[in-house]
Write a structure and sequence with these properties.
8 helices; alpha/beta; four-stranded parallel beta sheet; Dna Topoisomerase Vi A Subunit, Chain: A, domain 2
């Protein structure tokens, strides 16, 4: 599977599932329009853009283009690329009826279409630079447990304090925190933060 250096931003969980089947990448769902009222998640997107770069991959309908346009303004000056899916009419398998505009969204695209859209956007396909970090460079679930950030008494409070310190969304689970930390920091960098 081809690995993409940048973090890919999608609208929802079904989009995330489809993209994750097409490429090996960090994929973050923004929950549609909810992103605009979530200052912490927007701050996270800014950090990710600076650290790894972002690729915005939204549906090709009116809502998708509105979200893309707003994010373009919010993240202006950052390392942001835009991937576009083609207009394909039909309905997703999980839905009983087509969307209002009758177009398939990201979740309805094939892996080839997703890869092609990312290539046209100028995605950096790499040889697993981030995935091949030595085990000692990656932050693990054990590290979070040993640092009191998961699985123990008071871990939720400690995790919330860390999330606040790092300007990350307060509702980020320990698994979500682990994913984001491994995008932003090596294990040594993370331990120095504490």
């Amino acid at each position: 599977m081809m690995r993409v250096k940048e973090v890919i931003i999608v609208e929802g969980k079904y989009d995330k599932n489809t993209v994750s089947q097409a490429v090996d990448a960090a994929v973050i769902e923004i929950s549609g329009f909810q992103i605009f009222s979530n200052k912490e998640k927007l701050s996270l997107l800014r950090s990710l853009a600076e650290k790894r770069g972002l690729i915005i991959l939204t549906d090709s309908d009116k809502s998708g283009f509105f979200i893309r346009g707003r994010l373009r303004g919010i993240l202006s000056g950052k390392n942001v690329k835009h991937a576009y899916i083609p207009d394909v009419f039909g309905r997703e398998r999980r839905k009983s009826a087509p969307s209002k505009e009758g177009k398939l969204g990201v979740e309805g695209m094939s892996c080839d279409v997703i890869i092609s859209a990312l290539q046209r956007a100028g995605a950096c396909f790499e040889d697993n630079q981030y995935a091949t970090r030595n085990a000692e460079d990656k932050i693990s679930k054990t590290d979070l447990y040993q640092l009191g950030l998961s699985g123990g008494v008071g871990s939720a409070e400690k995790r919330r304090a860390l999330l606040k310190k790092l300007s990350l969304p307060e509702r980020l689970s320990s698994n979500g925190l682990l994913d984001v930390l491994n995008i932003l920091y090596t294990r040594d960098e993370f331990i120095r933060l504490l």
